[in-house]
Amino acid sequence: MTKTTQTAVDQNTIRRRGTGLRAYNPEKAFRGYTLFAPLVGQSTVYLIDMEGEVVHQWKLPYSPAQYGYLLPNGNLLYNGQIPESPSRFPLWSLFQGGVVLEAEPSGKIVWEYYHPDHHHDARRLRNGNTMVLCIEKIPRWLVPQVKGGVPGTEIDGDMYADVLYELNPAGEIIWTWHAWEHLDTETDIILLQEHRQEWTHGNTVGELSDGNIVACFRNISTVVIIDRQTGKIVWKLGHNVLAQPHVPNELPNGNLLIFDNGQHRQNEAVNYSRVIEIDRQTKEIVWEYKDDPAQSFYSPYLSGAQRLPNGNTLIAEGSFGRLFEVTAAGEVVWEYVNPYFGRRTLSAETTLMRGEYNSVFRAFRYAPEEIPWL
């Protein structure tokens, strides 16, 4: 009689499928170092080599992390979360942010800025200032004019939207842009499935080569370009193309690379994610990556993409901690799954946030010459 060995099975689906380095084609991948930060459970930013080995890490005082990226001087710009931040946004326990800092490779903090309503993103500008994404309450009289969303889901009749602040190195606000002053209540419509506590839900702010600002608003599935001098929206791509996008970023040819998450995608039988390159002049999709079958690649939240110097694209499938690189033809040549899991501590926990997960907001690949201190 054969004896059966009882073995405990890991009940976490993502971890059971395997973590760490999952695939690597050294002949086709862009060799360098990948930077990422687990979104839950810790405040560590990791730098790994192509084999998935940690070669450097920053342990920072604010946990959990949002994300970080390297500045030209080799320091890390880090967006951190302060769970007890005194934000005026009632759903802060599901949102979180609060601190932006610059840290040397040693971990020494050389610049720090707190704002109770900071969330998701902050970027260092070429002039040395920092653009910070925050949230604010919009005027009560405007709320009924904003269309879409689940009726009656405002917060005691109030609605919030995004505001951008440009800070000088001393932390003084020298430029402000209020989303509610520039969006169109007739066309910038909240998705029908989203609640009306937020009009925009920004997740990205960045600087273009001409000095203008690009921003991304998930709740209205819209990417905008803002004229730095006038504050006017001079370019817009909306829900006829996008579905809850993240991280639009400018390519050397002037086009925009966008992670198009795909939750509540219009006129589609299934939800799926894709990465698209948009010609800014024609607004046409000139390059696209999606899996086959399409639903095999899907992150309803988070995520981003970076075009690499060899023409490949690094993609962060954020909800599942999957980082992978594809060629222009869509061939996967490198894949790594974040092995660091954690549980998020929330005062108003929802089904979405329960359990143990390994989400990553964004990831970046750097060539060896970009990290001379390593």
UniProtKB/TrEMBL annotation:
<dbReference type="InterPro" id="IPR015943">
    <property type="entry name" value="WD40/YVTN_repeat-like_dom_sf"/>
</dbReference>
<dbReference type="InterPro" id="IPR011047">
    <property type="entry name" value="Quinoprotein_ADH-like_sf"/>
</dbReference>
<keyword id="KW-0614">Plasmid</keyword>
<keyword id="KW-0808">Transferase</keyword>
<dbReference type="InterPro" id="IPR053143">
    <property type="entry name" value="Arylsulfate_ST"/>
</dbReference>
<dbReference type="Pfam" id="PF14269">
    <property type="entry name" value="Arylsulfotran_2"/>
</dbReference>
<dbReference type="GO" id="GO:0016740">
    <property type="term" value="F:transferase activity"/>
</dbReference>
<dbReference type="InterPro" id="IPR039535">
    <property type="entry name" value="ASST-like"/>
</dbReference>
<protein>
    <submittedName>
        <fullName>Arylsulfotransferase (ASST)</fullName>
    </submittedName>
</protein>
